[in-house]
Design brief:
elongated; 3-stranded mixed β-sheet; 3 domains; CBS-domain; MgtE N-terminal fold; homodimer; about 65% helix; mainly alpha; about 5% strand
């Protein structure tokens, strides 16, 4: 399917190269804007990109522009005339304009704002000032607002007249004289309602709404919970100021997931695309945690040094250190990732902490016992360091796994309780802590059992 | 916001307890079905759940039923009369019925199928036979299909008459005499088009479609790529057989992310909800990887045993084993998770492997050098084992981190190349491999530098 669609872009180029401009423009209407934008990305020569973009029908070029990379947007914005830029911004949805401007250098932002009319300029400035990742930055002002005293006929006329410029017409929001949100009505309901019915009589109550400062994660949860395709955004006085549509929410969900996954791997999240990010940018987002974890490993060195006499008494013990710390770390990371993911999906609440701990302890006991038994047999058959050492290593393995599960369960929940992001308490952090604990258990048990 | 909505469910209960049935039913229309379903979940006494459910207005109860847990669905299905069950299934969207039946024991499935008419029964059986996680299991048959020879007036009449039972009316799909999909038309376009225009003249080409056997992940990618709210599904002959709507895709995206995260933490994914899963179920999904990783750690024991003479020559070396394997593991997991996530988002392709490796190597060199330098200073100041040992440990750290980055980059890409899921090659797997490599480097460098 995909290749077939990309074929349409190649056909567009063929028409252009053959000088068949009207065929080129006609084809452009059949090719999804995202495919044109991606096709342009593949073209190396910037002059050619600019020429193709200028040839696109006006109503298509703003859609294509919204899907382009920041680099190509900047290229086009810098080479566009003032009139071209004004036409482009006028045609784009406000949320796309704001997304574009957020990535631009000051000179481009200035050029765009200089070419916008006063009203648009004020709006753009207002949007640029909403907190990062808030409902305000996600919303668009291109929604259909109906007054509660409209009749269905008047509402349909209004939608027919203005709907073409709106991001969605399928859910219309109903406001009173003070522009306060009082209800919503779906287009489905409007088309089956009698023409002279009043909106206030057929409207439904609003399922969910957001404040401009609400975090995008909470907004995404409402979308998923109530199966919404759009959500109204209100200011502090309850006045409707915008709507958020599902296409932006799909991106938010992916972004939030990527952020969680990065945090779980001890990477400081950033919005930069991987292939665009420079080496020093990546280092800056990875080195801090590596450094912290390396320095905390000092503790494990101290423990080993402290118990040097135990190790000297039974040199064979050293050989099993990586297996013990590794297994405990893996088990702790299974538990912590499970707890973190379930908290972020709302499946596990803080109040469930005891049930979760109890469940994880039982899982750890069963898994630990199985691992310890297999390890005991393996050591007896292959390593043959003597029954006592086999028993010490296997018993340590069991204890370390139970301990790792407790740490992996309690640490993320504790972080959440303290208002920190639990995802930071995932695998690498847990591994470092569990390493030390496993070593301590190992030497105490060995010292006791072997009399060292 | 949420608490306010849950309040509505509490008010419903209060009306019911006070015997005010009509107020209860009226309130039920104001309360989102998902909130009623979750409210019912909180009620312990099954008799009370059944009584409340029976009191719900008929058109609401099927919506609520679709949101209930499998346990409560089973409870209701088992206690319902044949007539009640038939009414419930008739009112539900087919995709919700199929989701519900997939979780039910054989006796409930039999009871439901026995009460469905022949046509529905055949459809349900067909849906239950689609491969797991395929477009076929996601789709619904409640869509609007317009013939290309319809006029706009006829199409609008058709939508008004049948649209109330459709999952969406906002994108209508156009079919020819053989029910082959030939185009689509949005309701937005229909309401502004002249009443006597023909559908074939105003329809647009279909942006994307799926086959019944397509994987849900590919379907989700099309939704996100083309900002769709619904997608048509065709059979092998190109005939329209269903549509998939965005609300199901949001769930798919979350499911796929959870699956990736679990795999990255060396957990075998399962669809079971955490709080419902039994201890042995969790053990079965975690123990296999723990066991494999513990057994592969045998290799690290063998390496340590093999180099016992080196360790005996400089006992201080033992103390830095956990720091070295830990740091290398953390760095390898940062790289592997970055590569896996970017491949799954389509940001990195297999053909980029050299660019990615080159980038990761430079990041590892810079990070490794910084870590090695800090470690050298720390050891000189605090541990004071002599310059030579400090140098050996620090140089090993640098080498181990560069190696970990290469493994963390190449292994997931190699897995993808072989058609395996790259997510399996994440942190715990990488850690185990990197542990061995780090130890090997450590002892070789130490043996050489210290002349042991």
């Amino acid at each position: 399917m995909e290749e077939e669609i990309r074929k349409e872009f190649r056909e567009m180029l063929a028409f252009l190269d053959a000088g068949k401009l009207s065929e080129f423009k006609e084809k452009a209407y059949d090719c999804p804007p995202v495919d044109i934008a991606e096709g342009l990305e593949e073209i190396e020569e910037t002059g050619r990109v600019l020429r193709i973009f200028r040839m696109l029908p006006k109503d298509i070029s703003s859609d294509v522009f919204a899907y382009m990379t920041s680099e190509q947007q900047q290229l086009i914005a810098e080479s566009a005339t003032n009139a071209e830029l004004k036409a482009l911004v006028d045609d784009m949805f406000l949320d796309d304009t704001v997304d574009f401007l957020e990535e631009m250098p000051a000179n481009v932002v200035k050029k765009v704002l200089g070419n916008a009319d006063e009203h648009t300029r004020a709006l753009i400035n207002q949007f640029l000032n909403y907190p990062e990742n808030s409902a305000g930055t996600l919303m668009t002002i291109e929604y259909v607002d109906l007054h509660d005293y409209f009749t269905v006929r008047k509402a349909m006329d209004y939608i027919r007249r203005t709907g073409i410029d709106k991001e969605t017409v399928y859910t219309c929001y109903v406001i009173d004289e003070q522009r306060r949100l009082v209800g919503q009505v779906s287009l489905r309901r409007l088309i089956i309602a009698p023409e002279n019915a009043y909106i206030r009589d057929i409207m439904e109550s609003v399922v969910a709404y957001a404040a401009t400062t609400d975090d995008q994660e909470a907004v995404a949860e409402d979308f998923s919970r109530y199966d919404l395709t759009s959500l109204p955004v209100c200011d502090k006085e309850g006045r409707l100021v915008g709507i958020i549509t599902i296409d932006d929410i799909v991106d938010v969900i992916q972004e939030e997931n990527t952020e969680d996954i990065k945090k779980m791997a001890a990477i400081i999240p950033s919005d930069e695309l991987y292939m665009d990010a420079g080496v020093m940018h990546l280092v800056a987002h990875r080195l801090p945690w590596l450094m912290i974890m390396m320095l905390s490993a000092t503790l494990s060195s101290t423990i080993i040094t402290h118990f040097e006499s135990v190790l000297a008494g039974a040199v064979a013990l050293t050989a099993f250190i990586p297996m013990l710390t590794g297994s405990a770390g893996n088990s702790g990371s299974q538990t912590s990732v499970t707890v973190i993911r379930n908290m972020s999906l709302g499946e596990v609440e803080l109040s469930d902490w005891f049930a979760v701990l109890w469940k994880e302890l039982r899982v750890a006991l069963v898994s630990g016992a199985a691992l310890a038994a297999v390890n005991f047999i393996r050591m007896m058959v292959f390593d043959q360091p003597g029954v006592m050492i086999c028993a010490v290593v296997s018993f340590t393995l069991l204890c370390a796994i139970v301990l790792a599960a407790s740490v992996g369960c309690l640490l993320p929940m504790g972080a959440k309780k303290l208002g920190l992001d639990p995802a930071v308490m995932a695998s690498p952090m847990i591994t470092t802590i569990v390493d030390c604990c496993a070593l301590l258990i190992y030497f105490v048990i060995a010292g006791f059992a072997l009399g060292l």
